[in-house]
Amino acid sequence: MNLLLIPGFWLDAASWAGVVPALEAAGHRVRALTLPGLGSVDEDRAGIGLADHIAAVVAEIDAIGAEDGPVVLVGHSGGGAIAHGAVDARPDRVAHVVYVDSGPLGDGGVINDELPVVGDEIPLPDWSVFDEADLTDLDDALRAHFRAIAIPQPARVASDKQVLHDPRRFDVPVTVIACEFPTSTLRDLIAQGHPYVAELARVHDATLVDLPTGHWPQLTRPADLGAAIVAALA
């Protein structure tokens, strides 16, 4: 299959380096993406919004010919919302979506408009901004590595509203790899009709998988994350 890896906030294509070997060993064609505004620390991020990130992923989907086989989107964190927007734009071209500690963001929702903004961007905040569950297994060395590779996020990507149109997005099978919260919690939220999982609850074929760690499994458990993605697509 053709896998497009969509990073979460502050990360570029290289952040998937520890995950890619397992995917390629399983025979998948893999392309990790660097989204607009995330090319370098010095890049201009003014005017880059959620729709621009979705459009970048849609362009990657369109570049893969139907004769080249199915397209799978793998979205981490905020990249999950971007993946879902791309599925809404191309529901007939995406065969599966894997949400890595994330999920589909419904129409009118925002990824996170509470992060501290500086001008047109959101630098990686102080660790105190995150919950303890986010930081599980992210030891001092990994925190230093993350901060060294972090690129400020275009501010509008976090606060722009998701715009969706096509109900066929619910026909695309998904796998949620749950890290900081167990799948039992997600199932309870779905059963309760919680708005946090309202869009996920409408997906016709959803599989929930546990991978206990913090919010950045591509840094804390990359090989296990790769194996989980391979298993989801087997």
From TrEMBL:
The organism's superkingdom is given as Bacteria
Annotated AB hydrolase-1 domain residues: 3-225
Show which residues constitute the signal peptide: none
Show the InterPro entries listed in the entry.
AB_hydrolase_1, AB_hydrolase_fold, Sec-Metab_Biosynth_Hydrolase
Gene3D superfamilies assigned to the protein according to its UniProt record, in alphabetical order: alpha/beta hydrolase (3.40.50.1820)
Name the Gene Ontology molecular function terms of this record: catalytic activity
The name this protein carries in UniProt is Esterase
